[in-house]
Write a structure and sequence with these properties.
The chain has nine helices and seven strands, in the order βαβαβαβαβααβαααβ. The chain is of the alpha/beta class. Strands 3-2-1-4-5-6-7 form a seven-stranded parallel sheet, with helices on both faces. Bound molecules: nicotinamide-adenine-dinucleotide.
Length: about 240
Amino acid sequence: MPEGAVIVTGANRGIGLAIAGELAASGFDLALVARDSERLDSVLAGLAGPGRFVTHAADVSDNAAVTAVVASVKEEFGAVYGLVNNAGMTRDGLLMRMRPEDWQRVLDVNLTGTFYFTRAVAPLMMRQREGRIVNISSVVGMTGNAGQANYAASKAGVIALTKSVAKELGGRNVTANVVAPGFITTDMTADLPENVKADLLKQIPLKRFGEGADVAAVVKFLLSPAAAYVTGQVLVVDGGMIA
Ligand code: NAD
């Protein structure tokens, strides 16, 4: 196992929880972050693996909170090996009706939060000449989506941010990659009307919606020795939907 913890944001449910479970079982030390501490205790109790696990409650759009979390993790584990920027949110609406605050909040959490965490871990990873950053985007960051101008723009931004980070930090053996999920069954997608889900399913060659575990397996790969020479890439995990 590499020295240091992997920080996973948005780890108290959905895809983040699946990532935490997969990484724990693979032997990583983990620092799990979510906006509120409420579910983090039960998440911690449910994790199984030989590593050490800690939790932190922080809003990823609060730079001071993010900086404090990264400093604590460095203190607790001695090093930060990996960062998985998974926290994200939607506030959907057609462009003409989208309120500026709904635009701003989604950009603040999905894109600026990713920037804050990445910037906070970068000096540590550069100094230790080792690090892996995995950012969770979305296929809609590549295709756009009616009713999700804010979300799609934030996720496209995550891709451009990641490619820039890969170029800036590559010389210090720090990789940065994107995982872009398609339709994954979580709280985020639970409220979609049945007819919308049925239409989506028709567009998926593998004929099923994804599970958190489908995304977690690819995140695990990007944190593994096998992915040492992979950086600046977007790995799409969507059952072939936008292929
Ligand atoms: P979810 O709503 O179930 O979970 C979102 C997580 O992000 C939660 O743990 C929540 O606490 C955390 N979070 C939200 N705002 C936060 C904030 N301000 N500060 C800290 N934590 C915050 O969603 P999910 O489906 O598990 O999504 C996880 C990631 O995957 C998101 O980035 C999402 O955009 C992306 N994604 C999801 C799908 C999908 O179909 N579910 C598809 C593509 C991309």
